[in-house]
Amino acid sequence: MEFTAGNKEFEALNMQLNDLEKLEKYKMLYDGYRTNILPRFIGGLLVRLGNIMYGHEPSYLKFRSIEITARVPYCSWSSAVYTLLTFFYFDERKAIKLSSIARYAGIAHDNETMHLIVISHLARAEKRAGRIRHALLPIFFSIFYFCAIYILFLVRPRWSFELNYLFEQDAFNQYSRFLDLHDEDLKNKLIESKFLEWYGRNPKNQYDFFRSVRNDEIIHRNQSIQNIDTEADGRRVRFLKFITACVVAAAFGIGAYIFLW
């Protein structure tokens, strides 16, 4: 799916996913996706650290910390695309693919920024945040996450998208759990946000808002897998295998030379 300026396609899909039957059908598209071991390890580490620091159950302050980090992949992809286009501007097919990723990353980054600003506003009214636990530590997580996403994108984009898939899956689960636990309470809480109005969403209450955020996360999750270029990924795998074989052969040759010498 191509998301254009104004986010009309994105917002239309978000509204459709308010229907639980359509949500489940959309979610099932990639529910059985199996990620590679490296993104699975990094993603599992981030989720475990988040649960240790902010608890297993969802909360306003946990969401604020999540959203500080959730913006990172889209900024990182934009930076990685800028780097790659510097070297591959002569390849139109590759340039179109990279530019499409950058366009989507911009839309998703704005969306995650909206989450962060609005949820931070709501969190202040619920509970006081700790400066280290809820502000400083998420920044450290974000720096690590940015570097991981950036490097993985340069080495093998599939791993970068899969890592974001895992992070967005956890975010979707957290928001779904929050809605299940506090649905009636959230429906009775009004929401006022100038930034939300500027963004173009007008939820009637906090339930509507958090439901739209839940929908955003599953869209981000699925789009991460849809961004994978299978053909290019296959070429990159063959190249990596070739480099690995050369390194192994060189190491074997050097070892044999030293042994015989």
From TrEMBL:
<keyword id="KW-0560">Oxidoreductase</keyword>
<dbReference type="GO" id="GO:0009916">
    <property type="term" value="F:alternative oxidase activity"/>
</dbReference>
<feature type="transmembrane region" description="Helical">
    <location>
        <begin position="135"/>
        <end position="155"/>
    </location>
</feature>
<keyword id="KW-1133">Transmembrane helix</keyword>
<feature type="transmembrane region" description="Helical">
    <location>
        <begin position="239"/>
        <end position="260"/>
    </location>
</feature>
<dbReference type="GO" id="GO:0046872">
    <property type="term" value="F:metal ion binding"/>
</dbReference>
<dbReference type="Pfam" id="PF01786">
    <property type="entry name" value="AOX"/>
</dbReference>
<keyword id="KW-0813">Transport</keyword>
<dbReference type="InterPro" id="IPR002680">
    <property type="entry name" value="AOX"/>
</dbReference>
<dbReference type="GO" id="GO:0016020">
    <property type="term" value="C:membrane"/>
</dbReference>
<keyword id="KW-0472">Membrane</keyword>
<dbReference type="InterPro" id="IPR038659">
    <property type="entry name" value="AOX_sf"/>
</dbReference>
<keyword id="KW-0812">Transmembrane</keyword>
<keyword id="KW-0249">Electron transport</keyword>
<keyword id="KW-0679">Respiratory chain</keyword>
<keyword id="KW-0479">Metal-binding</keyword>
<protein>
    <submittedName>
        <fullName>Uncharacterized protein</fullName>
    </submittedName>
</protein>
<keyword id="KW-0408">Iron</keyword>
